[in-house]
Design brief:
It contains seven helices and six strands; from the N terminus they run βααβαβαααβαββ. With about 220 residues, the protein is an alpha/beta fold.
Length: about 220
């Protein structure tokens, strides 16, 4: 059976990642560290035979994707995909984790508990996010059977992909990393996703500033 190989990559770091400030679908660009990470990811993939690069249209993801496209022989360049955007965090967007806990303690509790049907005011629930990402990946991957594609997105999107590939439900505690510019490898068939490798950061081994990978909630 033919499969689609997927390289799924979270965008490089932003200043708001460092500040633990929720970006959601706000358009925040990469910081210097994030641009360096994007170039390192690009170099790590430059020997791969890639057929398409799809990216969230938010600039932190799209700039990461453009760095990869500069080193890859992909005819169409980076193709923007709105459905690869981060979860919409509604009234949480623009706030730090600490501010959320202080201003909306009940909502913060539901968020931390991963209530699948709860959504921030004006935002998306985890159930809605999972359905959006699942449908998007199936649509894109089905167009590239027997080929390799790159998906550049956000921490929340990466989290959904891992759960789909390992058949874990939305509320399962997360034990996997969602590092900026980490390379995640998946296979897709009409039966769904499977995991090949996760959280490869070997290309960032010379990173000038070490730090703990940021949570998807500030992706």
């Amino acid at each position: 059976m033919q499969v689609t190989r997927i390289f799924a990559i979270r965008h490089g770091e932003t200043a708001w990642n460092v500040d633990t400030r929720i970006q959601g679908q706000l358009d925040i660009g990469l910081n210097d560290q994030g641009r360096w990470q994007a170039q390192r990811a690009a170099l790590a993939l430059q020997e791969e035979s890639l057929h398409a690069i799809y990216s969230s249209d938010l600039s932190r993801a799209f700039e990461t994707a453009q760095a990869i496209a500069q080193h890859a022989q992909v005819a169409l360049g980076v193709q923007p995909e709105v459905d690869l955007r981060e979860r919409h965090f509604g009234h949480f967007q623009g706030k730090t984790w600490a501010e959320i806990g202080e201003q909306w303690p009940h909502d913060a509790k539901l968020w931390r508990e991963r209530d699948p049907h709860w959504s921030p005011e004006g935002g998306e629930s985890l159930v809605v996010l999972r359905a959006r990402i699942s449908a998007c990946v199936e649509r894109l991957a089905a167009q590239h059977m027997g080929q390799s594609i790159v998906l550049i997105a956000h921490g929340g999107v990466m989290d959904v992909l891992y759960r789909l590939a390992t058949q874990q439900d939305t509320q399962a505690p997360r034990t996997w990393q969602l590092g900026n510019a980490a390379i995640n490898r998946l296979l897709w068939t009409p039966q769904g996703l499977s995991l090949v490798g996760w959280g490869d950061v070997s290309h960032l081994s010379e990173e000038p500033r070490k730090g703990k990978p940021r949570d998807e909630t500030s992706a």
